[in-house]
Amino acid sequence: MNIIWTTDLNSEAYQDSLAIRRQVFIDEQGVAEAIEIDKNEEDCYHVVGYENGTALATARLLAKTPTDVKLQRVAVLKDWRQQGYGRDIVFSALEKAREEKFSTVILGAQMKAIPFYQNLGFELDDSEPYKEAGILHRDMIYKLYQDQD
Predict the structure, then answer these.
(1) What's the structural domain count of the chain?
(2) Distance of CA 48 to the CA centre of its chain
(3) Closest to 3 in 3D by CA, of 71, 50, 59, 65
(4) So where does this one cross the membrane (predicted)?
(5) d(CA 120, CA 131)
(6) Which residue, among 84, 33, 36, 34, has the nearest Cα to 57 in the 3D structure?
(7) For residue 86, is it within any domain?
(8) What is the 3-state secondary structure (H, E, C) of the chain?
(9) Among 24, 106, 120, 128, which residue has the least CB neighbours within 10 Å?
(10) What gap in Å lies between CA 28 and CA 20, rounded to an integer?
(11) What are 45-84's pLDDT values in tens digits?
(12) Is position 115 within any domain?
C-alpha cells in the first residue's frame, strides 16, 4: 500500500481522505457531516492509503498535548476491509506519532472495533463507555515507548 501524509487541506490526498470518511462514517454509519468534518481538520495530520491508485483507507492524528496525540477517523472502504489495510494505516499513524515526538497515542474506539485495536497493541483505559455521534465508544491508549508508566 502506498501511504501519503498531508496537512494541506487543498491536497488531493486530503480530498481522498474526506471521500473515504464520507462513505464510511456519513453514508454507512449515519454520522452527521457537521460532526464528521469538524473544526480540527486544519490542525491534523491526515493519512491516506492507496492500492493501485485507489484511495481505500484513511486516518488522522490530532495533537492533544505536547506528548499525547489522538488517532481519529480510521476508516477503510467496505470492499477493502479484512485485508490488512486498516492495520497498515494504524501502524503508519503510530510511526508518524513517533516521528513527531509524541509518546502516547489515544483513541476513542467504536465498541465493535475494540478487538481490532487490542490486536494492534492498544489497551482500554479506565474510562466508561460513552456515545460519540450516537455510537458507543471506549477510550484506548498505545504507549509508543515501553518504559512508560
Answers:
(1) 1
(2) 10
(3) 50
(4) none
(5) 23
(6) 84
(7) yes
(8) CEEEEECCCCCHHHHHHHHHHHHHHHHHCCCCHHHHCCCCHHHEEEEEEEECCEEEEEEEEEECCCCEEEEEEEEECHHHCCCCHHHHHHHHHHHHHHHCCCCEEEEEEEHHHHHHHHHCCCEECCCCCEEECCEEEEEEEEECCCCCC
(9) 128
(10) 11
(11) 999 999 999 999 999 999 999 999 999 999 999 999 999 9
(12) no
| Grid cell digits, residue 24 | 464510511
Quote the cell numbers at residue 38. 469538524
Could you give the CA distance from residue 67 to residue 64 in angstroms, rounded to a whole number?
8
125 — alpha (psi -120 to 50), left (phi > 0) or beta? beta
Domain that holds residue 98: 2-102
How far apart CA 8 and CA 124 sit, in angstroms, is: 32
Task: Provide the terminal-to-terminal Cα distance of the chain, rounded to the nearest Å.
Answer: 34
**What Cα–Cα distance (Å) separates residue 82 from each residue in 6, 75, 104?**
25, 12, 26
The pLDDT, as a whole number, for residue 145 is 82
Domain presence at residue 138: no
Q: Is 35 a domain residue?
A: yes
Question: Which contacts qualify for 123-132: CB closer than 8 Å, 24 or more apart?
Answer: 132/108
Residue whose entry in the numeric block shows the C-alpha cell 494505516: 89
